[in-house]
Amino acid sequence: xxxxxxxxxxxxxxxxxxxxxxxxxxxxxxxxxxxxxxxxxxxxxxxxxxxxxxxxxxxxxxxxxxxxxxxxxxxxxxxxxxxxxxxxxxxxxxxxxxxxxxxxxxxxxxxxxxxxxxxxxxxxxxxxxxxxxxxxxxxxxxxxxxxxxxxxxxxxxxxxxxxxxxxxxxxxxxxxxxxxxxxxxxxxxxxxxxxxxxxxxxxxxxxxxxxxxxxxxxxxxxxxxxxxxxxxxxxxxxxxxxxxxxxxxxxxxxxxxxxxxxxxxxxxxxxxxxxxxxxxxxxxxxxxxxxxxxxxxxxxxxxxxxxxxxxxxxxxxxxxxxxxxx
Length: 326
Ligand code: ACO
What we know:
This protein is an alpha/beta fold and 326 residues long. Helices cover 32% and strands 24% of the residues.
């Protein structure tokens, strides 16, 4: 059976780090509150002139170099992002130009924090049907440019970064074993960016009322996330006839350490089997899973034949998981 296999990963985070202590000077919050409620200590912030496609480019060239692929060998590019360079064209097309990946087809996926796993799911199907053979997946966000720096309930949470992966076909039993994607549009208002679309076209009104910034009902989202992810991870293991004890590493979306702890507890696995970097980057939405995956690979935390579970939850609402045999 043909499956997709991750043959390389790469990631990039902007140099500028913004610590909780620095945010204390901007709004009424504290390092103690942010650390206790989220686990975040710092996040990376893109430079004023840095674009989403630029971050995506740096992550992509690292992944391409890792598996000795030239950009013109790539036949599909999918970029998962909710903070692209502009509403259109797709950031994937801008990335295609930056890479000079002239033989690829390129498009974006908008599934917020679940976007990278959504993209994996699509790439997996294309690879299994033989449509595409060398796929570049990127999860990337520059959320700092969509944050209201006077809203303490959101600006402390998010950060910028990019992660990339190369997917190729394999006949072996190692690769992506399953992907699972879900959404519930009834809850779209929980996390959204109201301005700049057809509902609220950009105007003085949208700017004066800060409709061009991310709005989130954090506590309600938190409760749905914990419950949904607990079921998601168990269902994903069950689908693959695996026991939680057989899992080598859980790579959760890095939104909040308390959500990650709750999921690990439900699985009955110890935290040394869970990858955490939310302290360093905050919530980088679609970039969170591929950055974590790349860091886990480079830190030697993933070995051949390991079972790896990826899971995410975000705006839409959307949620998604994937089980990989490395
Ligand atoms: N500093 C100090 N106090 C704060 C801050 C802050 N930065 N932010 C909120 N508070 C206060 C609130 O005003 C409130 O005060 P009150 O009790 O006097 O009214 C109190 O802290 C508690 O606020 P809650 O919102 O209930 O705090 P909670 O424990 O839920 O933590 C958080 C907030 C961190 C946002 C949490 O709800 C969360 O992580 N939610 C899930 C986020 C998520 O997973 N999103 C999905 C992905 S995002 C995407 O898709 C783009």
